């Protein structure tokens, strides 16, 4: 079985739960009083996908504005970017759109984009509708899931879908983009409904 | 009652030891490092950072003040004014003309006295397995510099000139230069948040523990490296990358400290063997180079060419006229000191005219210009500015010249053999030469060890026999370097000279310390095997108490020095002590029986 290192970065507004998503995925734990990230924090997790091992090198970036300019260091060379917004904060969804623009302009050409609407356990305070977000994600061919790091909803799914979209490596070692032609990714079938 | 007094005294003496230990109760911050492969002792914030770096400095040019330290990160790091002044001058090229663009080099300066890191004890522990030439440099700091000079019309001076400098006690030059290549260009664009992020990354790294493969995430890239151990077979500790990877994702460093010897010695190629002798003997040596990059590379190459021996005198990869040791090292009233200096300022050609050995290096970037002249140049031919590259000395080497290595490397040049391969050949050559030289010394010193049977648990450990020069010289007839080296020449003369120089002194001190610790360890093991119960039955109460106190002292010392004892020895001794204490009357037990350290 071959091991592939996949650099993944998390982007998004401050306080939307990027670090919490990573902690849930890597450690399966949740801490409501997590400190704001400085620069970025780094964690790894290896998962099996078909006949490959995917070692995710996860760069969880700081959402605070003063670290904004550092983002290119983290999305440079990334196989995937998870852009996170908070479903209870409309503003964070607007920030997400700016991140998509920046990735389109300066990010790696074949980067897999996943959009995570976090804090879906707080549906009473919802400001971003699931449909609007899903439509937007479809329009840019991004993976879309609503997640809750707190209740462990759809966290692993984000990474499974990323694995699915990563180009497979053929015998010559060059990447083949197997999923490029698919307009409608298959994520909707495995998505757990939350709320 | 006298016993009680001494017991209390012991308590007090032990206390400072305990305060140096890091308590496991100190929790990591919540966003601490989860990605570590192996559990490590839990450390306080900035402890991990401090195990790699003292601090990061930004040195800029101020029109009124000249060079100035603009930023020190982390902000709580301490540097004395004198240290700051040194860093300022040493972080900029002496003469700026030749250094447009980005330049990397390194310097070394004396640490101000009287400061002791509270981490020292802990750092010694993980450094125990490091090769002697890679241990932290006591009393000195290295400065690893990334200097940028570009035209900038918006600035008054017309140029942007700034250095990012890593200050560390670790001699991992290749590693720190790679690290700077990642941090510095980003810093010059993005300023302080970038330093904050970098320092934060470094403070989550595992400590620089020899032998482990370390994964060091830094600013979006993962560096992988391995610090060699003293148990590695020399010349085999390079890390190789198993699968190709994207340098934006991860970087594998084959070595943390080795410089490209071939590239560095290229301009003085014909004289490598003589240079090896000069370094081995701790001769005063100065490298005059056109830029700090070339001077520091060459000095580091010189210092490392006698590896695995540690070069024990002072060396300054880049030395300037502002250096606080300038007067001390350049005075004409004394013989030149046993140091290696790298300089770029033409002024030194005059100041150090009286030095016995001078290496002049031209511009290394003109690779086509291989040293053509084989002859060593006479010192009187060294003019101030326009002297040709070469080695200026009146030194007559002890050993005959090895033509084979010269031919082999020359052939490599003609056949355009890759520089890495040439470097490997040269490194192996130096290694074999040094080993041939050192093996007879190792063998003789090992014979100074007393016989195992002379170790008695009830006497102090036996003494090592003293080093006797003539006795050693006699061993050379039968077991000299001729066994492993085909080089002919005056080996005896070379040894005589070596035994008088600081490199021998440093090497012998270290070996003697190791052997004395080995003796202590054997003695402890012998004690453990004794039937102490039987012994105390034959002795008075006072003698038994005395024995307990002595054993306790030995145990403490053994733990402190990390004696190379068999596993299980120390716990066994501890339980012996407990048993003896229990056999004493209760009032004495109360005094002697302390609970094991908390």
TrEMBL record, chain A:
Gene Ontology MF annotations: GTP binding; GTPase activity
Assigned GO CC terms: early endosome; phagocytic vesicle membrane
UniProt-listed SUPFAM superfamilies: P-loop containing nucleoside triphosphate hydrolases
Pfam families: Ras (PF00071)
Gene3D superfamilies: P-loop containing nucleotide triphosphate hydrolases (3.40.50.300)
Subcellular location: Cytoplasmic vesicle, Phagosome membrane; Early endosome
Membrane topology qualifier: Lipid-anchor
PROSITE patterns linked: ARF, RAB, RAS
Identification of the protein by name: Ras-related protein Rab-22A
Organism: Phoxinus phoxinus (Eurasian minnow)
UniProtKB/TrEMBL annotation, chain B:
InterPro entries tied to this protein: ABL9/DENND6_dom, DENND6, Tripartite_DENN
UniProt GO cellular component terms: recycling endosome
Span of domain UDENN: 54-518
Compositional bias of kind Acidic residues: 8-17
Spans annotated as Disordered: 1-36
Gene Ontology molecular function, alphabetical: guanyl-nucleotide exchange factor activity
Similarity remark: Belongs to the DENND6 family.
Name recorded for this polypeptide: UDENN domain-containing protein
